[in-house]
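User: Sequence in, structure out. Go.
Assistant: Echoing your sequence, followed by the structure tokens.
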Amino acid sequence: MAFSGNHTVVALAGATGSGKSSSFNAISGTEFAPVGVRRPTTSEAMAVAWGSELPGALLDWLDVPRRHLVPARRSEFENLVLLDLPDHDSTETTHRMTVDRLVPLVDMLIWVVDPQKYADAALHDHYLRPLARYADVMIVVLNQSDRLRPDELVQAMTDLRGLLDSEGLGQARLLSMSALEGTGVPQMREVLARAVADKRAISARIADDVASSAEGLATELGTAPTPVLDRKRRDPLINALADASGVPIAVQGVRDAWKLRGGRATGWPFVSWVSRLRPDPLRALRLDQTKRELAPTAISRTSLPGANAVQRARLDRGLRELVDAATAGLPRGWSAAVRDAARGREALLLDRLDTAIAGADLELDRGTGWWSVVRALQWVLMAAVLVGVLWTMFTLFAPGLGLAGLPMVFFWGWPAQFVLLAGGVLGGLVLAGLSSLGVSLGARSKANRAERTLHEAIGGVTDSELILPVQEELDRRQRAVDAVKRAAG
């Protein structure tokens, strides 16, 4: 359409001896096409254009080397380009190749046949039948009608009409003509003039091209509906990815780290210092960053162990099930596209998962406010123990050192120093025990929270790296199906 503009391209094609070149001259009213005894007469495509100038770009695109201009303004043939093609049954391979190349490109086809060869298998099997879709922009002309008696002409036209109808060319126009005597030439010129005037040949041929392409594309797209990804398949895949990326280890690390840190903060100070000799599980896994510490421009990594063979097998099974569900009923090409989309980033998948885990906010800096209260109480109780110990020691050793003893103070009938010592020890141990219970419950809650958070992070990677690429391919296929339906309609 870009090259042709307002021009209508009509091609005359025919077999050797059909009088195609004579018909070309008769229809065009020129003597450009050489007519002679030598066969084939037309060795290369030739064009005659009517108008004020030759459509050079169009003829260059059609690759028609021989071209002539018939000056015409306000002529019935203005903007017509008439092509004389080489004989389609020529012994020269290049001639047949020229015909095969130009037949799909022109707007209207005129097939010139003669009474002896109008049923030629080469014409019908290689050209007419395959081009049945373009019957509405095709004319079959029985030339050399002057060689037949009227009854013979009627019989030949009837036979040819029946042959065309049986091949799906019912819409193709059938005319008779004698290029030598001029019979039927005015009717042919009228048909061409009408095609140039209403431009329907161009739009009809393009519509047929689109419909033909749509039919071929529909075959490639297949008839099965586009699969719909079942969201139920997402959860097993996320679980497999979480297992392969070390989420269970990270969750256990959160549980152990919370217990360790909570024990340090709320335990009895006389013994809780021992826990500082134990390494922090999350710090060892590089999962101890808080939300404030996470840099938005930095890429974090964990020290989680890599997936073992069993975990990789589970992951591969999950991917395979996803691909199988997404390619059910699709033709081979689209199945391969979906499979490539699902596995195209598989090499970097575990790395992306590790980055997502490292960047997840496990909220370990929250929910620790009561630890400070317990820690303060523990220090008060520890101070009471120290005061009681020092007071008792002073009471025991002061007389021997010649020091004046402290007055005896009793609480509930017990010496004050004993009450301070016993109360501090007992209170510290009871408080540590109760705090340990609270820390254990908090560790379970934090572990559950961390598991949900990490699964959400894994789900985000799953959606972006697996589900979304597959869905994009399925959406692309559905758009193609819809477009082909519109084109075919």
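User: And one key feature?
Assistant: Residues 292-299 have pLDDT under 50 and may be disordered.
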